[in-house]
Input
Amino acid sequence: NTPSLSRAALALHFNSVPLVSIEITPKTSASCSPAPESPLSSAEESVKSQQEEQMCQASIQEPSETSESQPGTPLPLPLPGHAGLSIQEMVAMSPELDTYAITKKVKEVLTDNNLGQRLFGESILGLTQGSVSDLLARPKPWHKLSLKGREPFVRMQLWLNDPRNVEKLMDMKRMEKKAYMKRRHSSIGESHSLESGLSGSDLTQSQQQQPHLKKPRVVLAPEEKEALKRAYQQKPYPSPKTIEELASQLNLKTSTVINWFHNYRSRIRRELFIEEIQAAASEGGSPSARPGKSGGEGDNSCDGTESDSTAEGRPSGSEERKGLLESPNRSQRDEEGEAEFPSASGTSRPRGGIIDSLFGIPESVSTATATATPCRNPKDSSLRKKKAANLNNIIHRLEKAANRDEPHEWEF
DNA sequence: TTTTAGTCAATAAC
DNA sequence: GTTATTGACTAAAA
Output
């Protein structure tokens, strides 16, 4: 898997740098050579001398094809400087970070220095461009992130802390360009010889011989999306039967409809997070402050329109604040009196002291001292719409909780 | 088994 | 060429 290898190779250069001023005992690696198939490998030569020393400080793990998606496997990362801590350990020990402030700062630095998301993502985060774009545009609040989800933010924070971050990324950019030019030159030469040696039919044949493994991407028509959105407004959690019906009516595969609902729920949820954050920011609070009372989309309890209707039949006050979008199962579990936002307060996590210094987190970025997000009303109709849909979601869950068998009638 | 979280990668939009 | 969007997928939680 060339992309993975090149990604890992790219990252090793950057990630072997001490990002904060801490006494380090760098582990030495048996091999500091970059991945052989890395597109940058030729260009790397030119800057190798500058970076070799840093590279070899890294505790390098052989990059594997799937390393990036496997939890627990260290990603290409700036860790060697951190007293031998793995990224997972750092994430686990990290104080609460203000994801919104971090992404804002990262965007700023990247734009100011004309650095692309792809380069940043592949070399610093170990993520693809699309993922980076998504992450930067719609960061989830820290307390809503799983350990894995926190990882990119910790990486960003570490990168921001590195005084030479831009410089290094610039170097990387230059190397990439060099390598690209080199490849382009050689491929031009190749295509010349191909043109002279292959007839048109030969090319067609070789193309035909390529196994057609890739499925064409499904692109939903606007009407189809509209129909699905309407269905979502009615029922955010459609039954298998409804899904079947939708699929046949829209002439789509069932799996496409299922995926669409999964994705839509997830993306709506995130949109609500970001709207929450922005609203809080505009009101002067810490942007991604842990909602505590407002609870992400759960701030509906502050919103007269929804809270009135959601309050009825809610099992408990805390339930109301738990957020409209949590899964039905979770909701049922919540009824048993589980503490609110168990992971949010970071009670079991060391805060400040060595870890704060490790991250070098400025006040503006850490939310450890942040205040709760104030309540607010929705500012536009789209938000209202989403919340209305979420209301349906709640109703759905209440139905389920109240009556395990599909309820035909409501009893109040 | 269903849902969520996180991500990839194709491709649309700029 | 870069960034945004989005259908599909995997892993993990519930």
Observations:
- The mean pLDDT of chain A is 63.
- The radius of gyration of chain A is 25 Å.
